[in-house]
Amino acid sequence: MATVVRHPIDDPLIRAHVRLAGVPGVGPRTRRALVERFGSPAAVFAAAAAELATVQGVGVKTATAIAAAVDDTFATGVLAVCRDKDVQVVTEGTDGYPALLAQIPDPPGLLFVRGDLQPCDALAVAIVGSRHATSYGRRVAWQLAGGLARAGYTVVSGLARGIDAAAHRGALDAGGRTIAVLGGGVLAVYPPEHDDLATEIAGRGAVMSEAPPFAEPFRGAFPQRNRIVSGLSLGTIVVQGAETSGAMITARLAGEQGREVFAVPGPIDCRMSRGCHRLIREGAKLVESVDDVLEELGPLFRSTTTIEGRVVRVPAELQLGDVERRVLAAVDAELVDGVTADIDEVVAASGLAASQVLATLGVLEMRRILRRLPGNRVGRQSAD
Fold first, then answer.
1. How many whole angstroms separate alpha carbon 270 and alpha carbon 127?
2. How far apart are CA 179 and CA 285, in angstroms?
3. Please, what are the domains in the chain?
4. 3-class DSSP state of 204
5. Which of 40, 112, 248, 310 is most exposed, with the fewest beta carbons within 10 Å of its own?
6. Taking the model in full, what pTM does it have?
7. What is the secondary structure of 63-117 as a DSSP string?
């Protein structure tokens, strides 16, 4: 299994990020604007209050608070807790920060993580829905999560009651990885009855938050954390949700982030299905089985490594049989300048019959992994 290098908990960059996170009034967007303007959290603290106040979104009150934050007692306390409780601090722009999350408009500057993030978590799908889910909703979430986990995907959700808990449990029961994104701190699990579930997830994936470890959740934190749920994922599946719900917020954010949106239909007289039906009317992919999700996911933003160590460029590669993998490997080996390959050379490299290779190339094209080109050539599908 590929691993991620942990950075020392007392790294000066981490300390500066944590210190900035402790300043009242500095949320994700304000933090990003400040760091983009001054270059680093340390440079933010070195700036004068008058200069800080010129940054968009930073008022006089926040600028004064930053300038007055000369004491890093907050950062010292937080890092001591992280060291004692084995909580990682992952900062934006460093190794280990989720590549998909880094591409959203307002990624968190730092993440507190119980457990471990792995390169294979770039192959992730979110499953979200109502806290007041029906037995049908919980069953579907469990089944979809299990199917995704068995296919090699990491399942992302928010550890809430109902659909979220069923999704995490489905991934765990299938022997897969799952990530829980919390509205509060990773050591202040909410709801409290999911504390054992969080511990189990940390052992087989990760529990994460942008809030300090013991921060209590507040109402506005949950919509904010939803951007992380969708941002970590190639696509978001809404299983059940009212028309105005956190699940619908997550679906909207996924669309704005350029990710796929899926929805599970339900009974027409069930209030918890109305949000899903609305999403389907607006163009979300209707999901009846995990195959509907796997068929829709296109090329990755960049290649990634599965938990078994296999490099993939398209999620559909996880579903390939031995012959299909053999032909794809031959194509990759024969690519000229990483762009196109001659089909005759692919046949020779694969060691298979020409008819078998041609038929397999058709299957790989149908799965949006390869594309046939003029001049008896074949190439990889682009991520565009």
1. 19
2. 23
3. 114-296 (3.40.50.450), 320-380 (1.10.10.10)
4. coil
5. 310
6. 0.84
7. HHHHHH----HHHHHHHHHHHHHT-EEEETTSTTS-TTGGGSSS--SEEEEEE--
